[in-house]
Structure formats: C-alpha cells, structure tokens
Amino acid sequence: MKKIIGLDLGDAWVGVAASDFLKIAAKPLKTFATADFDKGLLVLLAQEPIEAVVVGLPITIGGGSDSDQTKKIRAEAVRLEKLAIDAGFTELRWVLWDERLSSKRAAALNKGPLSKEEKLMQHAKAAAFVLQNYLDHLSMMSS
User: Whole-prediction pTM value?
Assistant: First the structure.
C-alpha cells in the first residue's frame, strides 16, 4: 500500500502532509523553505511509498477563477512533476486540488502566540487540510 502526500506551495515555504496507508487521515509532516523543496521532495519520494501528490490550488473565493497565484501554482506543479519524472518517479499521479481557506483553517487552530517552529508547521497543517479534503472526496467516491 502507498500513501498520498499533500503540498501547500507558497512563495517562501512549502507545507507537506501525508496520508496514512489506508488513505483515511492526513497528518502534517514538514515545512520546507521553498528554495530547499526540490531536494526535499525527491528525498521524501525515495523514502516513502507514495502513489499521488495533491497540490493545493488557490482558486479565488469570489468567482472560482484563476488569479496570478493560481497560475503560478499550476506552473510550479508542472515543474515539480517534471522534476519527479526526471528523477525516475514516473508512476506518481499529480492532482491539483482546491485549497480555499486551508491556511485560515490551519491558523484558526492556534491558541495564543506561536514559536518559530509552530509558525512553520502552519504550512504543513494547511497541506493536511487540503489533503484531508481530497481523501474525504476519495472516500465518498468509493462508497
């Protein structure tokens, strides 16, 4: 059995979450500096049995249309997919998934001031919200 990972791609940070092997629950995993993420992704793909990568897509709340950030994330997802394929990870499925409000939901979990590590984990928590939404969708589709 393989896991699914979720990504919350940002300008400075990339949050990563992973599912369990049953694909029921998402758990925040790690936050990478964007500049270090290519290497981090390849290490993760080599260490974990992964079947799919779910990339949070920031669709605008008002009209559900593409913003400049949406276009940027689409391009980055394509670049990361190519990076993975070039490294030999050709069997991965790549999915763009609506991430609206995931960062706000992650921030709402906080009670009081956060340490630097807790602030960094916010990105991984946002990735977990995106991934959990996708896992819930998969579960409903299979019922």
Answer: 0.87
